[in-house]
């Protein structure tokens, strides 16, 4: 399999998993409904207008357009790197970031167009394109993975903070967010050399 085809398969697989989970949650749960899986993991349905992990920067339209530009840029760059025979792992990480960004963009593009609004007392249904709760690019991103507040104690051998209590809070996120986060962290850890030589020039 060539690097280009591998990137396409990775993106398609992540998008499929991400959208299947989101549609299952969107059409099967009321807004803010929560399903306990374990004491430390819940499926909790929320929607957000912002970026990954619920952050909000600027207007909704500007954010959606930024996503479109970023996805186009990253797609072109992956195509170039595949032709340059970049390392396989580098292509994998870039593809994970691309797929995550595209997954959340799909929500913004089509969920508002085709689904009616989710509420704490109503499970959303597909109502046909153009009959939904928001116009094109103004749909809300579906999030569902939630790890409640975890309170723990640092090991006594830890310098400065040994024995002190530590509270870790995880926001609600989705599969696309996870793909972006894992891809970015791996890029920073293992592919800093490639990141310092990013170029859009064709050889």
Tell me what you see in this structure.
This protein is α+β, with helices and mostly antiparallel strands and 203 residues long. Helix content is 47%, strand content 13%. The protein has five helices and five strands; from the N terminus they run αββααβββαα. The chain has a three-stranded antiparallel β-sheet. It has a two-stranded antiparallel ribbon with strand order 4-5. The radius of gyration is 19 Å and the shape is globular. The model has no long low-confidence stretch (mean pLDDT 87).
Can you summarize this structure?
This protein has 203 residues and is α+β, with helices and mostly antiparallel strands.
Beta content comes to 5-15%
Strand line-up across the major sheet: 1-2-3
| Average pLDDT score | 87
Radius of gyration: 19 Å
Distance between the termini: 22 Å
Shape: globular
Low-pLDDT windows of residues = none
Q: Can you count the beta strands?
A: 5
- Derived from helix and strand composition plus strand pairing, the structural class reads alpha+beta
Biggest β-sheet description: 3 strands, antiparallel
Query: What count of helical segments does DSSP give?
Result: 5
Order of helices and strands: HEEHHEEEHH
> Roughly how much helix do the residues carry, as a percent range?
40-55%
What does the secondary structure layout of this molecule look like, with pairings?
Layout: H1 3-26, E1 34-38, E2 41-48, H2 60-83, H3 88-114, E3 141-146, E4 150-153, E5 165-168, H4 175-190, H5 192-195
Key words describing this protein structure:
single chain; 203 residues; alpha+beta; three-stranded antiparallel beta sheet; two-stranded antiparallel ribbon; 5 helices; 47% helix; 13% strand
